[in-house]
Design goal:
- By secondary structure, the protein is mainly α.
- The chain folds into two domains: 115 residues, no CATH class; 135 residues, no CATH class.
- The protein is 51% helix and 5% strand.
- It has a four-stranded antiparallel beta sheet.
- The longest helix has 27 residues.
- The chain is globular, with a radius of gyration of 23 Å.
- The protein starts with 18 loop residues before the first helix and ends in a 15-residue tail after the last helix.
Length: 261
C-alpha cells in the first residue's frame, strides 16, 4: 500500500517594496530604539531574509543587495575604534542609516494618509470650493480635485517602481525647498507646470513624496490650483490669483518644514 503523500511544506515571506521597508519592519516589530540599532543583529536578520528569498528562487533586486553591502560595511566600521577628533555626529556609522529610516517612515506615513483620504473621497460626492477657480483665466477648464492629484502621483510612482534603479545618494531635499523650486518655476513665466512631469523629474521615490507634500501645501495655501484643459488631459499646476500674496511673507515657506520634523 502506497504511503500517504506528504503535504508540501511552504514558506510564506512578507513582500517589501524596498530595503528600507524591510529594515523598518525589523526595527518596529522588535520594538528596537531606532536611534540605537543593534547593527549586528539587524544585519543578520536582513541577510536571513535574503537567504530565504534565494531558497524560494525569488529574484533579489539590486537595491536589496546594495543595502546588504551597506549594512555589512556599517557593521565592520562599528568594530573599529572611533576617532576622538571626529565630530560627534560622524563617530557613529549608523547615523546616516538612522536618518534615512526616520525620513522613510515619515514619508511612508504621509503616503498612507493620502491613500486613505483618496479611498474615502472615492466613495463620496466631492463638492470642491468653486470660488477658488472662479476667474476669467480658468474659464473653460475642468476643476481637478485632490483625488486626481493623488491618482497622478500613484501612476508615476508605479512606473518608477517598475524601473530597477539603485539610489546611491541620500535625497536631502525638504518640503520647503521643493516648494521654493516650484515657486521659482511658476514665477518665471505664466506657463502651467505638468504635474506628471514635475513628479517624474524627481531623482528618487523619496523626492517624489516630498514633491507631493509640497504641492499639497501650495494648494492649501492657495498659491496654486489644479486644472485640466480637457477631459482626461494632463493635470496642470497653475498660479492662483493669491500666488504673490502667499509668498510675500518672509519665512512663510521655511516654517512649513517645522511641521514635518
Amino acid at each position: 500500500m502506497a504511503a500517504n503523500a506528504q503535504p508540501d511544506y511552504r514558506i510564506q515571506l512578507p513582500i517589501y517594496e524596498g530595503p528600507l521597508d524591510l529594515l523598518l519592519d525589523l526595527v518596529r516589530k522588535q520594538e528596537i530604539d531606532i536611534h540605537n540599532i543593534p547593527i549586528a543583529k539587524i544585519t543578520q536578520q536582513y541577510l536571513d531574509y535574503l537567504h530565504q528569498l534565494e531558497k524560494l528562487n525569488v529574484d533579489i533586486s539590486a537595491d536589496f543587495l546594495y543595502m546588504a553591502a551597506t549594512l555589512i560595511h556599517i557593521k565592520s566600521k562599528m568594530l573599529l575604534p572611533t576617532d576622538p577628533l571626529a565630530p560627534a555626529e560622524e563617530q557613529d556609522p549608523r547615523n546616516e542609516l538612522v536618518h534615512r529610516l526616520i525620513e522613510h517612515e515619515k514619508f511612508k506615513n504621509a503616503a498612507q494618509m493620502l491613500y486613505e483620504k483618496q479611498q474615502v473621497e472615492a466613495h463620496v460626492w466631492s463638492h470642491p470650493d468653486m470660488s477658488l477657480y472662479d476667474s476669467e483665466e480658468t474659464e473653460g477648464e475642468l476643476v481637478v480635485s485632490l483625488v486626481d492629484l493623488v491618482r497622478v502621483f500613484q501612476q508615476v510612482m508605479e512606473r518608477r517602481r517598475a524601473i530597477a534603479k539603485i539610489e546611491l545618494t541620500h535625497e536631502t531635499v525638504t518640503v520647503a525647498q521643493m516648494i521654493e523650486q516650484l515657486r521659482v518655476r511658476l514665477a518665471a513665466n505664466d506657463e502651467p507646470v505638468s504635474l506628471t512631469g514635475f513628479f517624474e523629474a524627481c531623482a528618487s521615490r523619496s523626492a517624489m513624496i516630498v514633491a507631493l507634500l509640497a504641492v499639497l501645501e501650495m494648494v492649501r495655501m492657495q498659491a496654486v490650483m489644479l486644472a485640466q484643459e480637457k477631459l482626461f488631459g494632463d493635470v496642470l499646476l497653475k498660479r492662483h490669483e493669491m500666488f504673490d500674496v502667499v509668498f510675500e511673507s518672509e519665512g512663510a515657506i521655511a516654517k512649513i518644514d517645522e511641521e514635518y520634523l
